[in-house]
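We modelled the chain as a single entity of 740 amino acids. Its sequence is:
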Amino acid sequence: MDLEKEFLRVAASAHFGTACVPLESLHFLSSGEGSRIINEENVTRLVRIFRDYQCQRRSHENHVPVIISLDHLHQVLKAAGLSLTSLKADEPPFLPLPYEQPVLALRGRHRLEAAKRFFHDPGNRWWTVELYNKDEIPPRFLTLMAECHDNSLPYADGEIYCNIRSYQLNGEWIQAAKWRNRIISDHKLHDYDRLHESKNYVPLATALDSLVPFPALLFSFRLGNLRRVFRIKCPEELAASVRHVHDVWNGVMEGFNTGLLDLATVKCLQGRSPVWSSADREYIQTLFANKRCFANIHDTSHRKVLKDRVLATKTIIPSMTTVLENTKYMEPAAILLRKLLHKKFKGTVLKQMKKCHRTGSGADFWASYRRLWLVAFRVFPYISNFKPLQANRSHRKEYVGDYWGFLASSAVKYGFMSTEIRRLLNRYPDSDILHDPWESPVMTTNNTNTWKLKNRCGMPNYSMLECISPYLSLENIYANLRPDANAVDLTPFAVARDMFHTFFGDQEELEMPDVTQMPDVTQIPDVALMPDATQEPGPQDETMVEVIEMNAETDRQALQHSENNHLEFAPTPLSLQGNRQPAPPPLSLGELLNTEIMLPSGQPTPFPSMANPGLAQIDAGESILLADPNLWDRAVPKEKINLRPSDARKRYEAQRSHNPFAIYHYEENSTFYSLADVHIPLVEHFLCSRRNFWFAVYNGENLVAVDTQEVESKLRAKGFVICGSGNTLFDAMRDQEFEL
């Protein structure tokens, strides 16, 4: 019998059953084989999970194996009035193991330590364990049990991000919290929250949401790369690049279940250019012939449709990998543009450059803005510490020259002016000058070098940059160039041109393409990140990473590059006080039913179109609610008051004799709504204007999330409902647990 089978047999024979035991009755080996060293960061992480989500002590995967002698177990069972068979029951019994005779736990040191710090009530300090007969398990098998591991890989950042957003977009906040707690790194968690809390990054967050139906595309998203995103401050351009990923793959998968797009297919096709490269075209045809891509789609006609669509892709086939790699090429140019702006400017590079331009909008600005980017792409090796990649040891060019003045004069030439630009012009009056870009760039080559993804995205190497920089002009980028059907490969300029198109559009649009709207996707609802229409999508970035200030020591130095630059972020609470007008008094019941108040004469009743035929038809009474978007706030008495959820509940209980119902909108500036019976019909209107909110009710002392469809019935049954948006559900739960 092999070792694995023998181990399973012995473990099954020695298994007494399952029980809940006091935390203090368990101990671990202090050292030796299989023992773990306490990692305080891991304990803190688990406490946070218990606090923000829940502690699933009864879930089988969280049970802790312990060993106990048969005599010891019989003594405890007898004292508790339990039998040995009770340990096999569906509901594990509580087994009061004495503290003075602790039993040995083989695994779970960190979760038990976290539980000791989290649970303070003596009656709640227990854990579920699997009891094994210590006399029947040989020492070598004890080591196997202590070191048991399922060899599964941790979830990738992209998987975690995709699941968080998928659940949040569908209003399933508890599941979203579960996945959010899988972000172990505090830095990544901070950056994730910043992405979704700052209004400046709404375009990028929205673009990423468009990829939620494509888990295979989001898989390669790395939360660690958000540091570069915040450093370059170009969310509009990055959003355009992510939208390009969506548009290409949505075109390929149109009519198919997007879940059938698998990771292997994305990895095989990313970076390929079937229209411009005959080698890529042949490679893709071979992939389909050998069924190495779209392996989950077997129908021959369907596979032909997919193959034809892939082969017709006019751009380099994008992915999140190519997007993130391309930010490495974009970053040095973005940092140089930031040098033309105030060192602590708010907002984004695009918005600030608009303020510095003579027109600030239209074709003139958009062309000038892109031309200045191209200048920055040309000069960054000379005046920053960002350098091209080194392809081999023998080829390394030294970039010698002073082009700060050239960058500033180019900005003036294209219509930009700022204090920083003037300062550069004054400091560098005799700057070196680059020649005008060359014309007629070559797009393809017949070289048959080994294909590498890094040659189709990311920072170019020295030799590649020499083939790119001389041709970087807006005329070359948007020239009407046609592919050579027999060409084998793309030139470095063609790759750079494609990258520029993904960030700035593939046509000479008169305006910056709109990247703030999520495309229509049938798999998920088209919802805003912040559902309350009266609020901005997120806080301003009050403190951002600073551009290096010029002084006597730094004038002649290149810009420093560090992946570990400290980013400060101090979110500012939203405030509407400056724009708030006095609220009209609540309407009487007669006024509520007077449709003349809500429907102007001669205007049709604005019935919404039914997007989902499965929904119940809207009746005449509901149409009144939908006719006036301010009806809820006009009709229902409310009070702006900041209370913890538990205190809001007490407030409701104190006034329920006068107002039998209450809804507490829990946020930075919370609102307490007091409802009478006549207001209940308006709850549907309240829900319609808060489609992405979470809702919760108290079940005893526990705060439990409920579906939107249940809110009205729960309000009638419980009398009190709490609601909010985003991560405030976790704050509400923390308050509730703090009160225990």
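As a brief sanity check on the tokenised model: The longest helix spans residues 362-383. Residues 321-504 form one domain.
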